[in-house]
From TrEMBL:
In the C-terminal section; belongs to the transpeptidase family. Transmembrane segments: none annotated. Pfam families: Transgly, Transpeptidase. The keyword Acetylation does not apply. Residues 64-237 form the Glycosyl transferase family domain. Its main location: membrane. This is Penicillin-binding protein 1A/1B. It is found in: Cell membrane. It catalyses: [GlcNAc-(1->4)-Mur2Ac(oyl-L-Ala-gamma-D-Glu-L-Lys-D-Ala-D-Ala)](n)-di-trans,octa-cis-undecaprenyl diphosphate + beta-D-GlcNAc-(1->4)-Mur2Ac(oyl-L-Ala-gamma-D-Glu-L-Lys-D-Ala-D-Ala)-di-trans,octa-cis-undecaprenyl diphosphate = [GlcNAc-(1->4)-Mur2Ac(oyl-L-Ala-gamma-D-Glu-L-Lys-D-Ala-D-Ala)](n+1)-di-trans,octa-cis-undecaprenyl diphosphate + di-trans,octa-cis-undecaprenyl diphosphate + H(+); Preferential cleavage: (Ac)2-L-Lys-D-Ala-|-D-Ala. Also transpeptidation of peptidyl-alanyl moieties that are N-acyl substituents of D-alanine. Keywords: Carboxypeptidase, Cell membrane, Cell shape, Cell wall biogenesis/degradation, Glycosyltransferase, Hydrolase, Membrane, Multifunctional enzyme, Peptidoglycan synthesis, Protease, Transferase.
């Protein structure tokens, strides 16, 4: 037994020696690694506190339209010239142990890993202020392991060669606060019109919350989210004993007065367009905001600077300077999807909210072409007759719905589909919608690229579900393009500062609509500019026909709060929306006409140097002259005739017999002519 015990002790002692040896070797290796990193950091010396290169945006002709400047370069201020509230708020929310660690917070890293594993996703960050500063200084933003290793080495070099206050000062002078603003001094000036040393607790907490996601937490983008984030920062200041609960509460309730302040960059061309480009860089290329703003990118866009200038000029000329109405305009090439001009509001400085790409508004009758495309799919033709009169529809749930025409004008008779779209008859539209089945309009709208949620209700035919301007342009472009799918394209190519191509646009030729039906739909939309379709009311484009010098297809739309005009030639599709941000009703007659006037003036000036292009029918389409009021083949007795296109086999075969008085008049004229001829022959 004693021998066995001795053997056990020997084995235990042996393992203990092995463990101690391994521990010693591990400790030695760890010490050598740390020593090596410190020696490396000292040998390499302090990294230069230079800023990354600016990202530059170009129009299609090579004109520089914007450049993201690094704000810290122009507004670098000493730590002693910053409000202590700004310093405290930043440390509390970003890195509470900043003054205690050596660049890496191991406990925080471990906690983040555990949180990410539990959530099975990246839910918690662990970067210290030093790491974030290193990331700001590092010129490459590629998401690779090599970049992360180099970032870590930058972090070590910063910690080994700079005092904590130097690192903190550099960080606060280089962090991104949104809207092209870098550094606490520039941010204080931009948001509050004051210097960084003057910031209050409430203002400092608001600014400290923005860098986590400037496109979400900027008070100029979303005040509600910004206030929530501010309260989180204030709570962090309470938890770190910087503020009492009462002080935090007072700061949270303090009214904030925002100012655009002095911008750090010169006036840019098409700022709303550039914001849309940055959004595409994020969503399509997957770049983060720091890369977009500071990665030294060269972004080659689709913008036509001449068209952009015309758009801004026509908006300014048309809308009265004292009016508070807002506007959005998008112009796109239907064959390529390239966005040539974009206006998201009347003054970017006052409101950077992009109404062309972000706002959802009721499209009114501009939604009807989608309905009538479906109708053509299901047996309707431009000559299909339905009765226009006051009609109350009883729905499946027992409720009733009575659509009204503009100014309560009704034919009180049958009208054709061609007339219905030209005169924007609401009764015809709702009848068609209910006959086809309400789900069909929702389906085609989604197919055409409408991303908003659509209510499957009778009034959807009249455009009561809010949509985005950019989506409506995409949908109209698909119809104009003969049914080939069109996606809005803002970017042709992106390179890094070394010229390496990171992205290049490729076109798609996916056919999603029947080309014959798409053309017939287009031709139906030329009717709003054709007075021969007048019956009980004027065609909806009557007020602008005199200014048109080429064929257009289009549709206007009006609700109590929104006014639209969308129209196109084979070369260009343009949508214009006007209305008030707060859903205020448009009561003034001139304001109701703004969208149409801006549209026609923009289209005419933009296309003035371009050859007049006509809508060419594809195979499977036939054009015949019809009486516009009966929809039947025209005869010599018809006072007006209109060339109308049909899918082959659906064109009318009956001749119009609705003009006996005209026939009698022509017969008398013929007899008179014959009498004069006989008299002349006698002489």
């Amino acid at each position: 037994m004693e021998m066995i015990a001795i053997e056990r002790w020997k084995r235990t002692f042996k393992y203990m020696r092995l463990f101690l040896l391994l521990a010693f070797i591990g400790s030695l290796l760890c010490t050598l690694t740390i020593a090596g990193l410190i020696i490396f950091a000292k040998w390499k010396g302090p990294p230069p506190l230079a800023v990354p290169q600016s990202t530059i945006f170009y129009a299609e002709d090579g004109t520089k339209i914007g450049e993201n400047h690094y704000g810290g370069k122009r507004y670098w201020v000493k730590l002693s010239d910053m409000s202590q509230h700004a310093i405290d708020a930043t440390i509390a929310i970003e890195d509470r142990k900043f003054f205690d660690h050596y660049g890496f917070d191991l406990k925080r890293i471990a906690g983040a890993i555990i949180a990410d594993i539990k959530a099975m996703a990246k839910v918690q960050g662990a970067s210290t202020i030093t790491q974030q500063y290193a990331r700001n200084l590092f010129l490459s933003y590629e998401k690779t392991w090599w970049r992360k290793i180099q970032e870590a080495l930058y972090t070590i070099r910063l910690e080994a060669n700079y005092e904590k206050n130097d690192i903190l000062e550099g960080y606060l002078n280089t962090i991104y606060y949104g809207h092209g603003v870098y550094g606490i001094e520039a941010a204080a000036n931009f948001y509050f019109g004051k210097s960084a040393r003057e910031l209050t607790v409430a203002e400092a907490a608001m600014l400290a919350g923005i860098p986590k996601g400037p496109s979400y937490y900027s008070p100029l983008v979303d005040m509600e989210l910004a206030k929530k984030r501010q309260r989180i920062v204030l709570q962090a200041m309470v938890e770190t004993n910087i503020l009492s609960k009462e002080e935090a509460k007072q700061a949270a309730n303090e009214p904030l007065h925002f100012s655009n302040g002095e911008r750090m960059k010169t006036k840019t061309i098409a700022p709303y367009f550039q914001d849309a480009v940055k959004h595409m860089l994020k969503t399509v290329l997957g770049l983060d905001e720091e890369t977009i703003e500071m990665g030294g990118l060269r972004v080659y866009t689709t913008l036509d600077v001449n068209m952009q200038a015309i758009a801004e000029e026509k908006i300014k000329e048309t809308i009265h300077s004292q009016s508070n109405i807002q506007v959005a305009l998008v112009a796109m090439e239907p064959k390529t999807g390239e966005v040539k001009a974009l206006v998201g509001g009347r003054d970017y400085e006052k409101s950077p909210f992009n109404r062309a790409t972000q706002a959802e508004r009721q499209p009114g009758s501009t939604f009807k072409p989608f309905l009538y495309y479906v109708a053509l799919q299901h047996g309707f033709t431009p000559s299909t007759l339905l009765r226009s009169e006051v009609t109350t529809f009883t729905l499946e749930d027992g409720s009733t719905y009575t659509p009204r025409n503009f100014n309560n004008y009704y034919a009180n008779d049958t009208i054709t589909l061609a007339q219905a779209i030209a005169l924007s008859d609401n009764v015809y539209a709702v009848k068609t919608h209910l006959l086809l089945g309400q789900e069909k309009l929702v389906s085609i709208a989604k197919q055409l690229g409408i991303t908003s949620k659509l209510k499957q209700v009778p009034s959807l035919a009249l455009g009561t579900s809010p949509v985005k301007v950019i989506d409506m342009v995409r949908a109209y472009s698909t119809i104009a393009n003969g049914g080939k799918k069109v996606e809005p394209i803002f970017i042709k190519k992106v390179t890094n500062y070394e010229g390496k191509v990171l992205y290049e646009q490729r076109r798609s030729d996916e056919q999603i609509l029947d080309p014959a039906l798409a053309f017939v739909t287009t031709h139906l939309m030329t009717g709003m500019f054709d007075p021969t379709l007048n019956d009980y009311a004027s065609v909806t484009g009557q007020s602008i026909i005199s200014r048109m010098t080429r064929p257009y297809a289009g549709k206007s739309g009006t609700t109590k709060t929104d006014s639209w005009m969308i129209g196109y030639t084979p070369q260009l599709v343009t949508a214009v929306w006007t209305g008030y941000d707060r859903d205020k009703t448009i009561d003034r007659t001139d304001e109701k006409q703004y969208a149409k006037h801006i549209w026609v003036n923009f289209m005419e000036d933009s296309l003035r140097a371009r050859k007049v292009a006509t809508f060419e029918p594809p195979e499977g389409v036939i054009g015949v002259y019809v009486d516009p009021h009966s929809g039947k083949l025209a005869t010599t007795a018809c006072p007006t005739k209109r060339l109308t296109y049909y899918v082959v086999g659906t064109e009318p075969t009956d001749y119009c017999k609705d003009h006996p008085a005209e026939k009698k008049k022509k017969k008398k004229q013929k007899e008179k002519d014959s009498w004069f001829k006989r008299l002349f022959d006698w002489f």
